[in-house]
Structures are given as C-alpha cells and as structure tokens.
Amino acid sequence: MRYNGLAFLLLCLFLSSCHGDYTPKPKAYPRVIYPERKYEMYDPKDCPFKFEKPVYATVTQDTVFFGQKIMSIDCWLNVNFPSLNGTINLTYKEISDSMKLDRLIEDAHKMSFKHTTKADYIDEIRIANDHGVGGILYDVGGNAASNVQFFLTDTTRNFLRGALYFNSEPNTDSMAPVVTFVKEDMKHMLKTFQWK
Predict the structure, then answer these.
(1) CA separation for the pair 57, 151 (Å, rounded)
(2) What are phi and psi for residue 49, nearest 5 degrees?
(3) pLDDT confidence band for 107 (50 / 70 / 90)
(4) Contact 150, 138 (CB under 8 A)
(5) Rg, Å, the chain Cα set
(6) Mean pLDDT taken over the chain
(7) What does the pLDDT average to over 171-188?
(8) Distance of alpha carbon 38 from its chain centroid, rounded?
(9) If phi over 0 gives left and psi between -120 and 50 gives alpha, with beta otherwise, what is residue 98?
(10) pTM for the full model?
(11) What is the edge-to-edge ordering of all strands in the sheet holding 76-81?
(12) Is pLDDT larger for residue 15 or for residue 155?
C-alpha cells in the first residue's frame, strides 16, 4: 500500500509538471543551400539580345501582365531560380515613335521608385559593359517587394527592363543573403548582356 501511494504521488508530480508556462520558440528561417556558380550563354532566337545566365536558372516566356493572362510576348521572359524561390522578370520593348526612349526610361524610374514607401534607400548605379550596353541598376534596400531592378538600352532601337522578385513576404533580415547571392548573378548577366 505504501508503494502504491508513493507511485501515485510520483505520477501526480510528473503529470502536473507538464502544465507549466509555455514559452514559444523564436521563428527560424529555413537553411538555404546555394548552388555552385556556373554560367551558360542564353541566346533566344526571336529576341534581339543574349546574355550569360546561371545554369541553375531556367527561362520561360512571361504570360501575365498586371495579373491578367496575355498571349505570350516573345521577349518578355522570366529567369527563374527554383531553388531560391525567385524570378527576374525581363520586359523588352523596341524604341519607336510611339515608344520613345525618354518615356521608357521615365517608366522604369517610376516603377523602381514605387517601392519608396517600404524602401530604406534606393541607389542608382550606372551600367556600362564591354559590349556597348548601358543603363541603370536600382539597388533597393529594406522590405520592398523588389530589391533589384534595372534597365538596359542601346539608346536607338532596344530597351529592356528587369526586376527581381521572390515568392515570399519581403523581410530584410531573412532575405538579405539570398538577395545578395542573386544580385551577383544579375551583375554577371548585365556584364555579359549583348544586343544582336
């Protein structure tokens, strides 16, 4: 009887110890495994440009414009980073009388500065590569939806705008290493970009 009472007391102590204050664990971010950097030439036959892209990125035609399904436009492309859950949207436009260079540059500038409300800063970095391609890279800091945007042009015929997006909620703390990694790939793409 004495052992039954002791066993009962120990059982009660054991069960009552499980109902203390619960302290939740802090949020953790998934571990990201970065692929090894290696590049290959991407040369779409119907587009007036080519560039080196990472081998771990895939390119697809863009079929959505402001949430609306559209017929595919040949040189509107998405450079997808499946392992990093990100995409660089590329939008090509031919410079013409109805689509003047000044207007295209102003539109690219406005699109980049739409992120001002969430951005800590927006730096404009001039682009000029060895292939005669020029433009501006917008480095957007903070919890903006797109941390890197750019445009490229030959100033006479061709204009390309690009923006990097991730399929996750903007969070500077967790996304900074991934953004930095993809930004290096974007810089390589811009350095090797050529008009045909």
Answers:
(1) 20
(2) -150, 165
(3) very high
(4) yes
(5) 25
(6) 86
(7) 88
(8) 19
(9) alpha
(10) 0.79
(11) 58-61, 76-81, 86-94, 158-166, 148-153, 134-142, 119-128
(12) 155
